Amino acid sequence: MLFQQLVNGLVVGSVYALVALGYTMIYGILGIINFAQGEIYMYGAFGAVLTFSATGELGLSVLAGIAAACLVGVLLERIAFRPLRGMHPLIPLISAIGASIFLSSLGLLLFGPEDRSFPLDFIPESHRILGARVTDLQLVIAGVSVGLMVILTLFVNLTRHGKAILAVSMDSDAARLSGINVNNAYVITFLLGSALSGAAGILMAVYYNATSPTMGLLPGLKGFSAAILGGVGSIPGAIVGGLVLGVAENMGAAYLSSSFKDAFAFIALVLVLIIRPRGILGSRK
Amino acid sequence: MKKILWVWVVCFAVFCMGITQAKADDIKIGAILRLSKGASDGLPAKRGIEIAVKEINAKGGIKGKPITVIYEDSKDSPQEAVTAFQKLTSMDKVQVVIGPMTSGEVLAVAPIAQNGKIVVLTPTGTSPKISDAGEYIYRGCNRIDKQAEALTKFAKETLKTTKVAILYSNEPYGKGCNDLFTKFFGDLGIPVVIAESFMVGDRDFSSQLTKISQAKFDLLFIPGYLQETAPAISQARKMGITEQSMGVYGDMAPKYIELAGKAAEGHVNASEYNEDYNTPTNKKFKAEYYKIVKSSPNEPNNIMFAAITYDMARLVAKGIETNGNTPDDIRAYLDTVKDFDGVTGKLSFDKNGDVVKQGVYLFKVVKGKYVKVQ
After folding, report:
1. Is the CB of B207 less than 8 angstroms away from the CB of A133?
2. Do the Cβ atoms of A113 and B37 come within 8 Å?
């Protein structure tokens, strides 16, 4: 059972990690927490679910979901963050909270209050790995998450645009002086962060088979905690944070009490912050 | 000059209020339903009242006066239900309120209703505590213990259950079901070998289900609301749990089968309403309801909730017509009504204000459809 719970934790954790990456990238470059990340996740899920029920094309639905998430992310940057750049960090924070409430209410209006199912019947094919039951779908989720994380890391470290993001996050004025288009870097960051959250939303829409306008709230909070836990601003930190959080809550639910499942995630967060205030892999700034 | 303007504005406003007051010889009924959060059963409940009112008004209302219903949203919260109740009774001056829907909301509203002598009819509050909430509080569905009795008896006699696993929703309703059903199963000599819980809004049940899959049982009972119970059963099946599953009223909805998919097959649950109940009233109601479903396909569809509120609204209207439009007139009618021709059965009320009808229906999902088994 220990190994089974570990697998459960890692699968959920890899999705938390994707959401956490969105938080951490935006924090790294803008120095603000984008509280609307959970809503971007929700729009990604809805984009995929609605397209799939209309066309039945899986590939197209995934693209539509990611496109929806990116669109919301870029609009968010334009409308809620860009006009407030350079102001006290509390102001964009309030703006983010407002955007989050607006986006979830808009979702309620557009999509209705009910849960939607993902009309794709996965055959519950499962494999036995070290005594644990792992389904194909779980393998796909973990695989896609890891793949996206690898691509992101390569993109940031090896490409011109990625390096521009790194430069802006270190010092935006110096980056501007050396000829980097700072606005572009912001937009690309939001695009990447939103695409990852949207992908997480799509994976969860398929895995849990229930998409609703309020589905982003809890993963948003957990992704935020995962980003803090791993050290906000650090990309490997967000990945580690997500996995630790997923495993911690599953282990807590398994061996202590399932009534406090969500609490264990946050207890883990508090414990890590007491011992290591900058997070597991956070750098001292 | 500004002051004079204000005086005019106030005079005009008072004048307008006078006009609306004078016009308002309509018979007003209040309704407190879950219209935003929990709208998947609140909106059908609203439709039930609307169908009843439309029918009555089409026949000229009650003694020539049309009925108007004032709807308030309880937002799934006892505090909001109390605010809504106070607004309905103090501003709209209603004498009778249909709702609220959850037991917590009903118990919060009950003392105020008792004090103000306003009749309250809850369509769906199942807590046994509502029986003792006072003489102005009525209910239109069976108490949860009736449901427990029927389901546990069915488990013992028909499903031949010997050991039970419970996965319950950790809020008053699910937790209440867990305690109550554990007792009823215990009385029948069926032990509950494992009980795990989840939170409202959870979509991941893998750690609880992993624990459950280690236990030996032959019935998996999942009390809660379908937003959680449907994904829960679907995950259980994906994890290789093949035992018989069972649920409460909340699982009686087309949405449940849609969300759970093939995992819903064989699921047994209780319901208040039987669509095939063979009376002219029910046939008419069913046709009206499905007309609405057809014209607004994006709205939550759940005929059971509409059926209960349809009955409640017609009972209230009949009470006003027979005795008069004061709370005590309505009470006098409800206390004496015998075998009212409702769509959820032949209705009467016992001395606690709880509805008396033929009992609880049990349904089983067969090939994506609910089939009545009892």
Report:
1. no
2. yes
Smallest CA–CA distance, residue B346 to chain A, in Å, is 32
Q: Over the stretch A222-281, which tens digit does the pLDDT of each residue have?
A: 999 999 999 888 888 999 999 999 999 888 888 888 878 888 888 888 888 898 888 888
CA gyration radius for chain A?
18
Question: Which pLDDT value is given to residue B19?
Answer: 44
| Closest CB from B201, B239, B258 relative to A117 | B258
Q: Does A135 touch chain B (CB under 8 A)?
A: yes
How far is residue A66 from each of residues A24, A49, A211, B181, B287, measured CA to CA in Å?
19, 11, 15, 45, 42
Q: What are phi and psi of B100, to 5 degrees?
A: -70, 180
Give the Å distances, CA to CA, from B345 to A186, B52, B56, B322, B332.
64, 16, 20, 21, 21
B92 touches chain A (CB under 8 A): no
Tens digits of residue pLDDT in A117-159: 887 666 567 788 777 788 888 888 899 999 999 999 999 999 9
Cα of B117 to nearest chain A Cα, Å: 35
Cβ B98 vs Cβ B49: under 8 Å: yes
Contact A214 B197 (CB under 8 A): no
Check CB contact under 8 Å for B207 and A250: yes
Q: Which residues of B touch A113 (CB under 8 A)?
A: 36-37, 39-40, 300
Sign of CA dihedral B137, B138, B139, B142: positive
Which residues in chain B touch residue A124, judged by CB atoms under 8 angstroms apart? 237-240
Report chain B residues whose CB lies below 8 A from the CB of A114.
39-40, 255, 300
- Tell the residue number behind the tokens 């597991």, with chain if given: A280
Beta bridge partners of B268: B246, B364
Mutation choice for B interface testing from A3, A5, A14, A115 by most B CBs within 10 A: A115
Residue B44 CA to residue B173 CA, distance in Å, equals 20
CB–CB contacts below 8 A, A to B: 94
What is d(CA B359, CA B353) in angstroms, rounded to the nearest whole number?
16
Dmax (CA) of chain B? 85
What is the SS3 assignment for A119?
coil
ipTM over 0.85: no
- Residue/partner pairs of B291-298 with CB below 8 Å, 24 or more apart: B292/B47, B292/B51, B298/A112
Taking an 8 Å cut-off on Cβ atoms, the answer to whether A5 and B210 are in contact is yes
Three-state DSSP class for residue B299: coil
Please give the Cα distance from B298 to B164 (Å, whole number).
37
Tokens of B52: 């009843």
Q: What is the pTM of this model?
A: 0.79
Confidence category of residue A164, pLDDT binned at 50, 70, 90: very high
Q: Which two tokens stand for residue A216?
A: 């982003």
- Could you tell me the CA-to-CA distances from A256 to A225, B164, B176, B202, B286 in Å, in that order? 21, 21, 22, 18, 48
Judge: B203–A250 Cβ closer than 8 Å, yes or no.
no
Angle, CA A216 vertex, CA A210 and CA A217 arms, to 5°: 120
Whole-angstrom distance, CA of residue A203 vs CA of residue A67:
15
What CA–CA distance (Å, rounded) separates A205 from A198? Answer: 10
Q: Which residue has the tokens 């996995």?
A: A243
